[in-house]
Write a structure and sequence with these properties.
binds adenosine-3'-5'-diphosphate, about 40% helix, alpha/beta, Rossmann fold
């Protein structure tokens, strides 16, 4: 169902509401009812599923994994959206050759039922919530045809972090994954945007160990270059100005006021008091 949700200034955003949760509203993606069909989607043991809260660097990781697995720097234009589980119809990725590289912003419990049985490899990606929120705001503002939102940053921050918009609360999302990691026997590797910005080669070596892929250091370095922010912004022409904005750690400082930052630190402490997760908000 299409809904309109207001920010703190009364400006409204169009979202999709389904089974009590909120999603981005892409009308053309909804024709096949992907969310309704998702529980029974078939999973293969060698699938790779990239899971992340929106704006955590999903496109970056998806492209890296795609090239690492392929073992070649093919530049066939494949769109990440066509394997995004909550919006693509199963037909779009059903017949892809193994290993399929799927991606989603859903919670673990929302993934197809077969995930628990087939145990595909999950790459779970996190990003510091201040930069994520800035990235989210800019993303929403660049897609007026979908979100139909023209609100101000000052009115967006609080409702966004409190979970009023698509995919709900970042806090709930990361806490849920921490619990899942403690209990499931599905293999999950955690990646972090700031770690990748610090040393993407190091993180890619860990990724390939987890995925059981063996590529030469030379090739891994080539993938690093192909997947640099500048290179991806150039190649992914269709999404260049929407997804590839700044690609930095610490841009939040240009957006959060002192008061917003203090408010953020307070709610972080409150909401994460039982969760030892820590994030880096700048890189030296
Ligand atoms: P910014 O808006 O801060 O620039 P997602 O892919 O989950 O939608 O996340 C988008 C964010 O990841 C954007 O952040 C985007 O610039 C950043 N990003 C995408 N490709 C990147 C890359 N190759 N290197 C670093 N950051 C990248």
């Amino acid at each position: 169902m299409e809904i309109r949700v207001a920010d703190d200034g009364g400006d409204e955003m169009t979202l999709l509401s389904y089974n009590g949760r909120k999603y981005s509203f892409w009308p053309e993606a909804l024709q096949s009812n992907p969310l309704e069909r998702l529980p029974s989607v078939e999973i293969r043991p060698d699938d790779i599923i990239i899971c992340a809260f929106p704006k955590s660097g999903t496109h970056w990781v998806w492209e890296i994994v795609r090239l690492l697995v392929a073992g070649q720097l093919d530049r066939d234009e494949v769109s990440k959206g066509s394997n995004m589980m909550e919006f693509a119809s199963e037909e779009e990725y059903k017949d892809l050759p193994s290993p399929r590289i799927l991606n989603t912003h859903l919670l673990f419990s929302q993934l197809p039922e077969q995930v628990k049985v087939k145990k595909p490899k999950i790459l779970y990606l996190t990003r510091n919530p201040k930069d994520m929120t800035v990235s989210f705001y800019n993303f929403v503002m660049k897609l007026p045809m979908y979100y139909k939102y023209t609100g101000e940053w000052n009115n967006f921050v609080r409702p966004s972090l409190e979970g009023k918009f698509d995919y709900g609360s970042w806090f709930d999302y990361v806490k849920d994954w921490e619990e899942v990691k403690k209990t499931t026997d599905v293999p999950i590797m955690t990646l972090n945007y700031e770690d990748m910005k610090e040393d993407v080669f190091r993180e890619m070596k860990k990724m390939q160990d987890f995925l059981g892929v063996k590529r030469s250091d030379e090739f891994v370095k080539e993938v690093c270059d192909h997947c640099s922010f500048t290179s991806m912004k150039k190649v992914k022409a269709d999404m260049a100005n929407i997804v590839y904005r700044k690609g930095e750690v610490g841009d939040w400082k240009n957006w959060f006021t002192v008061a917003q930052n203090e408010w953020f630190d307070q709610i972080y402490e409150q909401k994460m008091k039982d969760c030892p997760l820590e994030f880096r908000y700048t890189l030296k």
